[in-house]
Amino acid sequence: MQNPKLNQANGRLKAAKTGVTILQRGDRLYLQAVLPPRPGSAKPSPYQQQIALGIHANTVGVSLAEKEARKVGYLRDAKEFDWGLYAGAGHTKQQSETVADWVRKFEEAKRSAVCGTTWKTDYQRPFGTLPAGEPITSELLLSAIAKTTPNTRQRRRFCLAFRQLAQFAGIEFDMGHLLGNYSPTKVQPRNLPTDDEIEDCFGHIQNPEWQWVYGVLAAYGLRDHEAFYLDLSKFPIAQVLEGKTGYRQCWPLRPEWAEQWDLRNIKRPPVAGKCHADFGDRVCKFFARSPADFCAYDLRHAWAIRAMSFGLDAALAAKQMGHSLATHIQTYHLALNEREQQRAYDQLISRYSSFGNQ
């Protein structure tokens, strides 16, 4: 909810051309302006930063913040701004509040705007690696990031989560050198299992319930958790009732698998889970102890490559997989290795030869 007193104060500061804005983070007020680098910063020139005032976002607090904003604007314009002036009560208050304090405030302010699975993977897990009782500092956040593997999805998640937490807490945080170059479109092409290998592995799975999960993942190209949200009442069409991208319908590529493996008769293992990630975790653990020397997502990727090899329109394949056409092309064109290109070429030549002989 917008604070009318805060809006009015910022309007007056803008009219006076102070170059300073009052921000509200949780129940506290901050100043934002282009300021000289803090002591110890590697940055050579002024840039936009925040000052934690340590005062509450009430009527009196807004009045005090406006006076401080005018002071900061004057000192900055006179080139007399000194960060030492803000090492007092406000700064001390900020530093005395622990990681747990700031995470709790951040969750109160942001939790309602983020779905449960996203909160757990993108925020709760990174925050859970921090020492809850320690004061929050840039050094502490950078240290936690440095413990993750460079150029991975986990490293990127930690960087983005901690950057938001640092901004919320009003501390300087530069993690650009640690962010790395991870991108789903830069994943190296996978050495995917052949259809013969997929079939052979199915026959070596002893547990019929996990065999069924394996089968639907292979035949329909599902995400690992989607096997637990599947309706096969329209068999051979599979309806994904819930998942990362919601409802969709998909068809089996290699429809004989759906028939031979009796996938219409649902045999889900009786595992518990509160969210998509829980079920995905159960599937990953199954694959770790299964006869397969590949992971669950390799079956999904194999389905996508099979769709290209069979000539299924990319837009239709993307729709069945539950992602955008751009994502489909960027991700799976990278995985078209020599084996798949040769198979597609052979099929094309075979069709051409058949047409020419008519």
Characterization of this structure:
The chain is mostly helical. Helix content is 52%, strand content 9%. The chain is built from 16 helices and six strands. It has helices at 4-15, 59-77, 89-96, 99-110, 116-127, 138-146, 153-169, 176-179, 195-204, 208-220, 255-260, 276-289, 296-310, 314-321, 325-332, 338-356, and strands at residues 21-25, 28-35, 47-56, 230-231, 238-240, 248-250. The strands form two sheets. A three-stranded antiparallel beta sheet has the order 1-2-3. The chain has a three-stranded antiparallel beta sheet with strand order 4-5-6.
What is the topological layout?
Layout: H1 4-15, E1 21-25, E2 28-35, E3 47-56, H2 59-77, H3 89-96, H4 99-110, H5 116-127, H6 138-146, H7 153-169, H8 176-179, H9 195-204, H10 208-220, E4 230-231, E5 238-240, E6 248-250, H11 255-260, H12 276-289, H13 296-310, H14 314-321, H15 325-332, H16 338-356
Antiparallel strand pairs: 1-2, 2-3, 4-5, 5-6
Helix pairs in contact: 1-2, 5-7, 6-7, 10-13, 13-14, 13-16, 14-15
